[in-house]
Amino acid sequence: MVREFKLPDVGEGVAEGELVSWLVEEGDEVTEDQPIAEVETDKALVEVPSPVNGTVRELHWEEGDVVPVGDLFITYDVEGEAPDEAAAADAEPTGDEAAETEGSPGATGADAEEVATPEGRVFAPPRVRRLAREEGVDLAQLEGSGPGGRITEGDVRAAAEGQEAAAGAEPATGEADAATDVEPEAEPADAVAEAEGTTAGTAVPAGVEPADRDRTLAAPATRRLAQEEGVDIDEVPTDEERDGEAFVTPEAVQEYAEAQRRAQEADVATVATGETGPRERREPFKGVRRTIAEAMERSKYTAPHVTHHDEVDVTKLVETREQLKPLAEEQGIRLTYMPFIMKAVVASLKEFPEMNAMIDDENEEIVYRNYYNLGVAAATDAGLMVPVVEDADRKGMLQLSSETDELVTKARERTISPDELRGSTFTITNIGGIGGEYATPVLNYPEAGILAVGEIKRKPRVVTDEDGTESIEPRSVMTLSLSFDHRLIDGAEGASFTNKVMEYLEHPELLLLE
Amino acid sequence: MVVGDISTGTDVLVIGAGPAGYVAAIRAGQLDLDVTLVEKEAYGGTCLNHGCIPSKALITATNVAHEAGHAEEMGIHADPAVDMAGMVGWKDDVVTQLTSGVEKLCKANGVNLLEGTAHFADEHTVRVSHGGEGQGSESIEFEHAIVATGSRPIEIPNFSYEDDPVLSSREALALESIPESLVVVGAGYIGMELAGVFAKLGTEVTVIEMLEDILPGYEADLKRPVKKRAKELGVDFHFGQTASEWHEHGDGIRVVTEPAEAEAEAEADGGGLELDAEKVLVAVGRAPVSDTLDLEAAGVETDDRGFLETDDRGRTNVEHIFAVGDVAGEPMLAHAGSYEGQVAAEVIAGEPSAIDYQAMPAAVFTEPEIGTVGLTEAEAEEQGFEPVVGKFPFMASGRALTTGHADGFVKIVAEEEAGFVLGAQIVGPEASELIAELGLAIELGATLEDVAATVHAHPTLAESVMEAAENALGHAIHTLNR
């Protein structure tokens, strides 16, 4: 029998995910828990396992589609049971249902209320009906997303976009019947031909070749129309003649202008694929990059950032780490500076609770957190990710070290789960790995603070010995850049927090007391 | 082409300057098309010159006189004297103001105005004859034509409008003296409106109607207050009768009637009437003016009643020839014609326009007035809806009571599921104005809740619309919910 499988919530509260790749094909035998697809949600790439043993009957989406959680994802014939035709008929989306799942004009949301409207009556205001005529959308084919199912301007625009897509692409499933149902009546087959024509790079769609005449008869208003449309009247194709000369009507001008517009739009679409244009390349702005961008934008536009910079002499820290490193290695742990920094930060956060707080904008409250989840920003091939080490205050140096290492590795390998990327209360980012001294880190909103640490470099420093004698010595120096939410934290507090972090890093033995 | 004819060309030729034609011409002009508008008689057509506007002018004027003389209840005692010639003169001034306005608007929008009668010579040419003999004619070549020649009153056998005592609505609205008695043939909206006018002016009015009730096509509960009020004004009704002839009798005429066919079969002795009157007004409907156009020369076809059939763009069977207004068939309403005229002009200009309304309003200026739009309850059921209906009587309206006119009600019909408004019927004071809100509600896909939750000013008649919507939702405040 046929089993439908809807895209599950692959991360906590994720509403949709981008289908990166199918790992199976139609007709493949699959076993329960076998990965069938890779879906990128939020910041993580997740493998979707098969819920059953069976044969893949139909893949309902194409790679690159953004699939809403809860939408029909894949259909199986369940192994060991003969296909049940009646059940298949029920389960198989046909006609309008199929159209819906494939992004038809009518697919305006799973919750859209169905309104049984007699006599093909549509509830849509006049301007929406006009728009539908403009776009060649059949209102009777739409389900409205407005109150009570009223058809809105957005519904018509979405349908029009759907039609364009349908005209330009092969049906995903190859099922001719379903594709026919999707095809809007008003969009003639030649639209497909035109789209194909433009993909080939011609300026004007096939069948609408410029006439290139020397002389054309037309009414003044027709000439004016041509001028307005930016069309050369001698290029407008026509079959009509007056006194043996070609005669162009306003309709012919409109039709030609429209054909040119479509051709230009198709050109733009073609350029957007990156296949043309030797000096530039375009890619869709989506996925992780988009998610990061949205987070950055929100952070910068919501929280006024202030960045405080300083340097800290970590010569003792370097020595301490050198002493402890072999001991850690004996336990199979590669000890980096990060756990020391994390410890120093946690200890400082305890003294400056605002830095571990956040502003709840909606409720206009400041939320102080009595737990310390540290985000550790990591650069990955897919972009910036921030794995979270939970309860950093309760963990020892080695545990912090191994846990951070493990999370960062998972992030780089794109196997990290969305849960492991959420819930941080303060973030540390290491900018030293690549180079540079200072940075202006952007808050991992809604956190109040983020600390960027630079590379530890040997620098000359004025050192005062016990006798008060000053000398210049080569020392190990690390830069610190602390950004904080100026709504919550004043400059002096930011500096004091940084001083406290510096104190711990300068005198790592103090961490023993933590 | 006749030798000596002047031949000109135009993008759009509009034939007839009534509310369909002049609106089409102005809209086409706005869309930068070269437009020529041909009118054989007067700008504004029947509506402005012989129909809507003069009748409404006289209805208003007679209402003023009548109400002033019947306001004892309000403590007003007056005996107004009506100068019929003065009243008609005022009406003519209103008409002139409007028709000259139409002419100015046409010119301001670049419309070429041409007086004369148009006949098609072929599918891209009309001949326009200017006035009488010797005034010449000209040929106009057009890319597109819009036929907007309107309609004329239907004549019935033995009642020629050429005869002095026989009036069409047009002559009735131009009378310079008040007839003592009048037989009105036909109880449709024109007959009922004019019966009311003359009854209020003191004329003894008798209405004969072939059917069994007034205002065919309207629901019984809408007709009831109108018929009741007409009777209060002294109008005498005879239903199931047709006018068969008239002849001079004494100082006036005698109109002879026969029972309508079904009635005659039932009553072997005939049962006809003889009604004496000064004049007889025939108001039995209107026929399209399509027989003067030589349509066959252009290949344009009509139906068997002479109407030009059109598609939802206003096109006739000849693609570049359009027809709008009364000549294109029902609904024969001025505002429908104007709407169709705009659509035709926009289609010609290449705009994505279409005749695409959800509901066409209608207003009858009887007393009380009737306003309707969209579906009745029965029509909604026929179309497969499960209608819900809300009603509010004007007796419960504070504003209606203060106008002294509290007969009638507002009725809203909506579909049950989402509450979309499907139609409305109003009989009562200012029904012709009130209906507009519900037309808008239908077009916008508004629901009962939308209408009910829209705050209406108090004290106004429009509150009744809100109350009717609340009634349909079961939470009316000022009436008991059904």
Describe this structure in words.
The complex is a heterodimer of chains A (514) and B (482). Chain A is of the alpha+beta class. Chain A is elongated. The two termini of chain A are 61 Å apart. Chain A contains 13 helices and 21 strands. In chain A, β13 and β14 (365-368) form a beta hairpin. By secondary structure, chain B is α/β, with parallel strands linked by helices. Chain B contains 15 helices and 22 strands. Chain B has helices at residues 21-30, 45-50, 52-69, 84-108, 169-172, 189-200, 220-232, 261-266, 295-298, 334-348, 377-382, 398-403, 431-444, 448-452, 463-473; strands at 6-15, 35-39, 111-115, 117-122, 125-129, 137-147, 151-153, 166-167, 181-185, 204-209, 236-239, 241-249, 252-259, 274-277, 279-282, 286-288, 321-323, 362-364, 369-374, 387-393, 409-415, 421-428. In chain B, strands 1, 2, 3, 4, 5, 6 and 17 form a seven-stranded mixed beta sheet that branches. In chain B, β12 and β13 form a beta hairpin. In chain B, α1 (21-30) packs parallel to α10 (334-348). The chains are: A alpha+beta (514), B alpha/beta (482).
